[in-house]
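Please, why this fold?
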Amino acid sequence: GCGTTDSPNQPATSTTSNASRSTVSGVASLDTTANGTVSVKDSSVPAQEKTAAINGDGVYTVNVSGLTPPFILKAAGTDQTLYSISKNGGRANINPLSDIAVAASAENTELSALYAMRSGDGDYYRTTTDNFERIINSLRTVLAPLFALYEVSGNAVSDDDDDDGERDDDDDSLRAMFRDVRFVVNDGRVNVTNRLTGAIIFSGSLRNLSAGTFYPENMPAGPGGSTACTYTYDAWGACQSNGTQTRNLLTTSPAGC
């Protein structure tokens, strides 16, 4: 009666409808956001580009009015560059997961070259975008225990979820996960490791993520927790002439410390 509930004969609406997406915004999860920028290239001919600064929390917003989707995004910091793709604008996080998905979508193309060669080939970019979204969903599936541990309910990149279409407020959860977990792509494989212990949490081929292996015993303690490394030593040796003593490391736990 107050106009806030959808009519049973009308489709559900979303606060991030395509018609209102005149911006691309989200969180760029670089190791450091100091002096970081986000650049967005569109699919027009010639391609147009806009750039915006990243704030201290990693948040950015780029006005894409007049630009043609889909968009390829580049977050560049002092020592790190990550990529992402946005189909229609709106929420588009740029993080290790999006970077992996772009790498898989581009196959053998270097990501910096992919960004530089934007030529307005509509079919190519639509295919790349579809592949990107498929791979994000695959990562969401194979990393489900990790997502659950950090209470990440969305797809970690956009608000185009399979659920109710509403934006997921996962920013804090994602920050915590990326602080504890490292994502590396090498020779067509993605390895997810525990930053503290170095132990592998997931390893799989970009071409067949579903066939990868997940090692739940190597996951971090989760948000607010700590997986402390424990060490045991033998007795200190005699004091040396330079004023130092030494002792030997006997055991470490958990594995990977």
About this structure: Helices lie at 96-106, 111-116, 122-142, 144-149, 171-180. Residues 32 and 133 are 26 Å apart (CA to CA).
